[in-house]
Amino acid sequence: MNANDTLVRHTLKGKRVLVTGHTGFKGSWLSIWLHEMGAQVVGVALEPLTSRDNFVLSGIGQKIHADLRADIRDRQQMQAIFDTYRPEIVFHLAAQPLVRLSYDIPAETYATNVMGTIHVMEAIRHCDSVRVAVMVTTDKCYENKEQAEGYVETDAMGGYDPYSSSKGACEIAISSWRRSFFNPADYGVKHHVSLASVRAGNVVGGGDWAKDRIVPDCIRALEAGQPIDIRNPRSVRPWQHVLEPLSGYLLLAAKMWESPTDYCEGWNFGPLADSTTPVWDVASLIVKHYGRGELRDVSNPNDLHEASLLMLDITKARTRLGWQPRTDIEQCCRLTADWYRRYGQEDVYHLCREQIEEFTSFV
User: Fold this and answer.
1) Which of 328, 327, 322 is nearest to 356 (CA)?
2) How far are the Cα atoms of 131, 274, 333 from residue 90, in angstroms, in the given order?
């Protein structure tokens, strides 16, 4: 455990922390980590998608301070929750997170990702207990020019598909609320909130069963004894284990608590350069560490558009936060495959805690 880990644990212990989207993949891991650090976690989300989700199997809902079902599209319900539980720190992860699904439900995607985020920010604005808010978007919020260089935090927002464009719009809304209502120049006079947004790459890890994501697709095929169909084998993504960006979100929150006006802006939390690799290579590593399986190229030039190249520049997080990735692509895929090999035979909460402990041991 390094100095940043110590800072995070010391800062988060005992704090009232509200996590939206805690039944989801990233939200469940974040809730487990926060609970292990001694935070009083209040989770707000829809029902988990499947009975095999990490949230369900880990039982984290029974361990945290409050496990609530609510829709972030309901502004009054969100405000009532904030008024009741009075969080000090907020991590907003709730979203419609799938590119391909956004083509089927574009209006719902926008209602959830844009208006839902605005409702959370309004609840924060009208709840005087909140001091720190970390709003989670995605690397796909950037106007993607298929460039070889990584995107920096000041690059233009955009997006081709409804999901990506909704996240670009979400970032614009966050920036507007920060300047309009949570301006650092007015801190301590007109408000007491430090508000930041965070952008991560393609996150993998145990307990994700969403459709049209490479690892869940791999595991479903492996468990069924079928070849793994790879839809976009040459698409390059900045792959990272789920604990990588979460470690960045936690460190950022701790720094914001310590220095409220110094870090309230946008941040990239991407992987090491060697982890920006084609889909085919990631699937091959999952097969390697799972112990069996074969890949099949089923690419179709007429398929729905998805960006083929998107990378993040993490210089800002490295230099100003002292954050950097701890795993390379091999370790990332090993941890992920390990969870899926073991989840049916072991206590999943213990398995997650073990992986968090192993992750924090990496330097």
Assistant:
1) 327
2) 8, 32, 29
- Per the CB < 8 A criterion, the answer to whether 263 and 132 are in contact is no
Three-state SS at 224: helix
- What distance in Å separates the CA atoms of residue 232 and residue 211, rounded to the nearest whole number? 15
Mean pLDDT value across residues 331-356: 97
| Beta strand spans in the chain (E) | 16-20, 40-45, 66-69, 89-92, 132-136, 194-200, 202-204, 228-230, 236-241, 266-269, 276-278, 295-297
pLDDT of residue 306: 55
Read off the amino acid at residue 254. A
Instruction: Give the DSSP H or E segment for 244.
Output: helix 243-258
| CA gap 39, 261 in Å, rounded | 23
3-state secondary structure 148-202: CCCECCCCCECCCCHHHHHHHHHHHHHHHHHHHCCCHHHECCCECCEEEEEEECE
Please give the torsion angle defined by the CA atoms of residues 72, 75, 80 and 86, in that order, rounded to the nearest 10 degrees.
70
65 secondary structure, DSSP code = S
Q: Are 238 and 312 in contact (CB under 8 A)?
A: yes
Whether residue 303 is predicted with pLDDT greater than 80 in this model: the reply is no
Between CA 247 and CA 245 the distance in angstroms is 5
Q: In degrees rounded to 5, what are phi and psi of residue 38? A: 90, 15
**Mean pLDDT, the chain, as a whole number?**
94
Query: Which uninterrupted H or E stretch holds 108?
Result: helix 106-110
Please check the confidence at residue 237 and state whether its pLDDT lies above 90.
no
Q: How far apart are CA 322 and CA 259, in angstroms?
A: 15
The Cβ of residue 191 has, within 10 Å, a number of other Cβ atoms equal to 18
The torsion angles phi and psi of 233, rounded to 5 degrees, stand at -60, -25
